[in-house]
Structures are given as structure tokens and as C-alpha cells.
Specification:
It is a single chain. By secondary structure, this protein is mainly α. The chain has a two-stranded antiparallel ribbon. The chain starts with a helix and ends in a 5-residue tail after the last helix.
Length: about 140
């Protein structure tokens, strides 16, 4: 059964990829926009850029896997510092190292599988961050 699912294609793309895109689009319509961006759009875009783009390129150019992961995590932290806040930058490097490890472990099954796993983990990290931030902010007004 699972072989059928992975071999089945819709418009040239594996069904799993199509299903992931449909779920992401549905979530963007249903979730409040900060949650949709943090838990759907950002993980998808960032993992495509940093894992499937940068880290995969470094690995294909024969960079040591540990070094490729470290460089990608640091660039990820710098990007968050430049675009969001330098206070946030150090806090994203450690999860980025974990995501890099997940990516490297998943590459045995193909880069597409590996990047999907990273997207799911990234979404989970961002959801926890959003919950903590929501609790932190609501704690100041006495609720």
C-alpha cells in the first residue's frame, strides 16, 4: 500500500507532496494569520531555502555533513537576526542544528522526504514558540 502511495503521481508530483500543499493552503485559510505564517508559510519557505537549497548544495559540493549543518544553522540564525531581531537569532541556531541533523538522516530516503520532515518539525517548533509567546504576553495583563 505505501509503495502505491509513493509511486502515485498527480500532475507529475508525488501524491504526498500534493497533499502537503493542499493541507498548507487549507491551513492558511483557516488559521489566524500569525499562526498560518509561523506554522505553515515560514517552515515551508525556510526549509526549502535553507535545507533543500543551502545545506543540500553544500553537501553536494562535498562539504563535511557536520560543517554543512553548522554553516546552514549559522546562516539561518543571521537571517533571523537581520529580518526579525538579533535577540531571536541565537535561539534559532540550536533548533536549526537539529533540523539539519533531521535533514541529513532523511537524505537516505531522498531530499524531498528529508525536507518534508524538516518542515513538520519546524512547524512544531514554531507552534511551541507561538504558544509560549502567547502565554508570555497574556501573563502581563493579568489573564
Amino acid at each position: 500500500m505505501s509503495c502505491f502511495v509513493f509511486r502515485c503521481r498527480i500532475a507529475g508530483a508525488p501524491v504526498v507532496d500534493v497533499a502537503l500543499l493542499v493541507l498548507a493552503a487549507a491551513a492558511m485559510l483557516v488559521l489566524p494569520w500569525p499562526w498560518a505564517v509561523a506554522c505553515v508559510a515560514a517552515p515551508v519557505c525556510e526549509e526549502l531555502i535553507f535545507r533543500w537549497g543551502l545545506q543540500e548544495t553544500l553537501l553536494r559540493r562535498r562539504m563535511n555533513s557536520l560543517a554543512a549543518n553548522g554553516v546552514t544553522a549559522l546562516v539561518f540564525g543571521v537571517a533571523h537576526g537581520l529580518l526579525r531581531s538579533w535577540m531571536l537569532a541565537p535561539w534559532v541556531v540550536v533548533p536549526a542544528l537539529f533540523l539539519g541533523w533531521v535533514y541529513q538522516q532523511g537524505r537516505a530516503h531522498g531530499a524531498r522526504v528529508a525536507v518534508r520532515r524538516c518542515m513538520l518539525w519546524h512547524s512544531a517548533f514554531n507552534a511551541v514558540y507561538m504558544l509560549l509567546a502567547q502565554h508570555w504576553v497574556s501573563g502581563f495583563d493579568g489573564s
